[in-house]
Amino acid sequence: MSSGLALRSEPAPIVACTVSSNVHNFGLLIEDMEAELGEAWGDLGFEEARDFMGALEPGGLDFVALAVREEDEADLGRVGEVINAARAKNIKVILIPENLSTAGLRELLRLGAEDFVPYPLADGALRDAIEKVRKEAQEPAADAAAKTGDSAVVTGQRLGGKAAVFATQNLAGGTGATTLAVNMAWELATIDKKNPPSVCLIDLDLQHGSIATYLDLPRREIMLEMLQDAPNMDTEGFKQALTGYEDKLSVFTTPAEIVPLDIIGPDEVTALINLASECFDIVIVDMPRTVVMWTETVLNRADMYFATLEIDLRSAQNAMRFIKACRSEELPLEKVQYVLNRAPGMTDLNGKNRMKKMAESLGVKFGTLLPDGGKVVMQSGDNGEPLAESAKKNPLRKEIVKLADGLYKAMLSDAAAKG
Questions:
Q1: How far apart are CA 354 and CA 98, in angstroms?
Q2: Which of 19, 231, 348, 376 could form a cystine bridge with 49, CB 3.0-4.6 A?
Q3: So what's the pLDDT on residue 28?
């Protein structure tokens, strides 16, 4: 019996395509498309894509990967025509920008691109984007609109119409401000199983920020431009700049490269916090240890400013200098909540005595005492997970849960009083 028929196979149906002026300029995109789709994808130029999609049935492709280089920005009109043609046929658009200006990127996102993945592509970035657009395509239209349309902004109306803003800052290196910010953000984002508040975590430690590491998130090249262009950014562009963690927490990471702390100023930071406050119920800002010209901006805007320190001389001296600086500038020190990390246990009478003397010498009260969580805290950060995911019963995690619960109840009470 001849086996010829058995050896024949139909070509894989095309489920997606790349659109670019020259796909060979995007070698990594070719590799990732082949890895994700095999041969079930094609490549088109801008003009070809418009005509091709015009002849398709609605939903004829899962998505198009629209690759745009800096030189294509001179004629964004034809790129926009591709997006419009795709939207007319209910085809999702993943934007792949290379060295595109923030204004150009914002314009293409405004036209209707669902997601963007900066080129060169990070490992797994295209896969995540494909999974996201496919998931959205499977959801009911109303749900999809709530995620990606004009109504996507979660304004915090459930909490009184005004987002709560918290900030964390080390008063000495290694005193746990970032650990507190990450875990507090996660606990707040998951505090109500049925109707959780929306939470945005912003890393403004531009030189040594580690939130992306602690949550195993990529650092995007575009973040520096987003920071500098924040006063001109709209809420849709802001949301596109965020990276999600477990579909429950939104993160504005630091840029991929180390940059000077004065590369942004009060205007940029104010605009960034304003955008986050429009989109989320709770905004948490992780500050650099260094006091910069926009520290005052965040302190004035924050509802609560958590300053972390330990029972040692360096912490005491830095705290004293921080307090004097705030007083000299007449900043609202009443917003500062002092968090003692690695606080002494119940039976450590010597440690408790040192803690009392330190508080008296500084003229402050330690509002939160965080116990030493041990090596598991560092391991959790290295594994890119909050403590709730890797060490639920850790004593440090338990205290952060108490802190988050107190903050959330205070927010609900305030919202009820206003409402």
A1: 55
A2: 19
A3: 92
